[in-house]
Amino acid sequence: MAAITGVAEAVLYVQKLEPAMMFYVEALDLKPTAVFDDACFLQASPDSTLILFEIDALERRVSVIPAHGARGRGHVAFAIPAKEMDSWRERLLAHGVEIEHEQDWPLGTHSLYFRDPDQNSIELIDNTHYAQIWARLEK
Asked: For residues 129 and 109, is the Cβ–Cβ distance under 8 A?
């Protein structure tokens, strides 16, 4: 059986697309790959996409794709190199983003938690974290 190799896409539901998109583009430096009236596709890495849906518009959308409707806060974790954690912290603070929590994990990895404009929980995590967990599970 083939293994899942990462997060292909994560979806967050926002009240207003423009300010949410600007947050992810400016504060997190994600690159927009497609922008629609009710959605924006942002490239997190070559094989990972974050999709922002404007929730009220999404509920009116007619599509052959099953509805992605949701209410409530979501969470997405972006993997980053451990050596870049400090520069990311500085970047977030420079953009007026409050760090909600920092976590030192027993594996020796670290995470930063903060909120986007719609109060979704966003995490930046050491990109070796899950590889270490999987390595331990495979033993």
From this structure: yes
Q: What pTM value is reported for the model?
A: 0.75
| Residues present in the chain in total | 139
Closest alpha carbon to 96 in 35, 13, 47, 27: 27
DSSP code of 8? S
Ramachandran bin of 96, using left for φ above 0, alpha for ψ from -120 to 50, beta for the remaining angles: left
Contact between 59 and 14 (Cβ < 8 Å): no
Residue with tokens 């599509």: 63
Both tokens of 57, joined, read: 């518009």
Q: Give the whole-angstrom CA distance, residue 133 versus residue 63.
A: 38
Residue tagged 């924006």 (tokens):
40
Strand 9-14 to 48-54 pairing: parallel
Neighbours of 115 (CB within 10 A): 15
Q: What is the pLDDT of residues 26-58, one digit of tens each?
A: 999 999 999 999 899 999 887 788 999 898 887
What domains sit in the chain, N to C, each tagged with a CATH number? Answer: 9-138 (3.10.180.10)
